[in-house]
Amino acid sequence: MNFQQLRFVVAVAETRSFTSAADLCCVTQPALSNAIAQLEEELGGKLFDRTTRSVALTDFGQTLITDIRHIIDAKSQLMVGASEYLTRDDRNVRVGISPLISDDFVAAMLSRIENLNGGLNIILSEMNKADIQPALNTGQIDFGLGPEPWGEDSLISKPIYSEPLLYVSATQGERTDEPATLETLSGKQILLVGEDCGLSVAIRTLFQVNQIPLVEYEGKALSYSILEKWAMLGIGIALLPASKVANVSCARRLINGDGAAVSIGFHACWKPSQELRHSFAAVKMALQADGL
């Protein structure tokens, strides 16, 4: 069995023609037919039903075609990964950062990079959490920073820091020293931003884990500042990381039933292949605020 045979099978399955598949693969039709026949013999079954008018996958072929495509895709990814490793400038480190990440953390990270004096060039891109994982998988970025939870098993995810989640509403002007409990959120209308940045997912997870019914406001804000303004207008309650709250006089700390502060955690993610880079140790050290 070889990749050429598998590529021929996919070409025939997509074109439904041995002749068209041969043209697509730049081989003669007899060469393609013989290669597929050899593969069928090795696999122990016919992959195609072939008549003078049509070509179609057999039930046996239908069962295997998805795995065959996965093998071909895996080879392509392997070649891309090898090319990226051999051609990249190890001094350039591309980092995708969620807009939820604290400016103070970013400043501290850049300062640590500078102090390490390893000649690293950090290239930052602000990205929604929904875009970070695909960008990591395709090699567009090397590291991604965003809020937990992460659900991608192929990536390594480690905590970097956490910060308090604050309760923002129009009625808190004189009560900022008194924390709000999670239980007080039950039945109250919660304001959310869109799905992509990860804040809404983190808030839903918080409610689910603590078994608190979540009442979502039907509309969605486009930014954290709008979320805060809506809370100030009395439309509902906003829950924001402390670093994203502009008017702290209308924000209260949030605590759980045990009296512990409720926080939102942030993680760094990367593909396992990043750990082979000479610069990995320096980048890992630069990301060390609380975790890693």
TrEMBL record:
The HTH lysR-type domain, residue ranges: 1-58
Keyword field: DNA-binding, Transcription, Transcription regulation
Domain of life assignment = Bacteria
Q: Name one Pfam family in it.
A: HTH_1
Question: Does the UniProt entry include the keyword Iron?
Answer: no
Which InterPro entries has this protein been placed in?
A: HTH-type_LysR_regulators, LysR_HTH_N, LysR_subst-bd, WH-like_DNA-bd_sf, WH_DNA-bd_sf
| Family of this protein | Belongs to the LysR transcriptional regulatory family.
- Identification of the protein by name: LysR family transcriptional regulator
